[in-house]
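Why run this: before we spend reagent on co-expression, it is cheaper to look at a predicted model of the complex and decide which construct boundaries make sense. The entries below are exactly what would go into the expression plan.
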Amino acid sequence: MTCREFLDYIGAYLSGELSEAECRELRVHLDVCSQCVDYLDSYQQTIRLSKIACCADSDPVPGDVPEDLVKAVLAAMKQRPIERA
Amino acid sequence: MIAHPTSSSGPAAEAHDDAELLGELRAGAPAAYVALMRKHGGRMLAVALRYLSHENEAQEAVQDAFVSVFRAVGDFKGDSRLATWLHRITVNAALGILRKKKRLERETSIDALLPKFLPDGHRDSPEGAWAQERVQELEKGETRRMVREAIGKLPEIHRTVLMMRDIDEFSTEETGRLLGIQPNAVKARLHRARQALRTLLEPHCRGVCP
Ligand SMILES: [Zn+2]
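The model came back. Tokens follow.
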């Protein structure tokens, strides 16, 4: 397995889509290639960082919803109210 | 009584407020519409802004989302949290605007951000391991903005797939269905998006020479 092939399979590897035999091949490559060990680690860190950056609970509370938006939605609802049986 | 935004504290209180609010929404009470928009609108705007990058488009998306919500409130089963349901409808409304403006069809090449290889399959100039303390820095308040900005630099379709899969936790199948692409195309784009984002974060995360 080359590094190029290893990198192609990382996504499928992490989502558990590879066969046991394929996983073994990837692990053998990891045993001999520190560059791919580094790459795999940074790939996983990237996924984690994107989650933290956008969803962390510690985010400041978002600003208020603009009054214009509230009015526009109310107008749209008035124009075509929900039909009830 | 309309649940007031500040009356919530903790998930139990929130569930109670939401149940009360839902009952009033189903009855079509305009005051309940306003209460829901004031309570959840800010967060929904932040979500829409991630997908659309323009404040006015994000507002358009949230406006569409609320109209869908109020029309479909009778269908809401209550098997997920109200906030989760609103979140998904917001993403959907944002995708609607991306589709309308044909932004997802733009073929911007991501190749420059993907790893390069030598003819023998080894990586061309690998950068080395990321330093733990540099990564930790990006987890903190102010510097998390850098990660968001890096996500914002990805081509539209790749950014959208990455956010739907890795951040908003839509399944591969659902992402494909909503974007009108095959599940394999979702996987391929997600992989490329993560690799490109990794490239953009790399200069910050690598241990720098003293
Ligand atoms: Zn390798």
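The longest helix of chain A spans residues 34-55. Chain A has one domain: 3-79. Bring this page to Monday's planning discussion.
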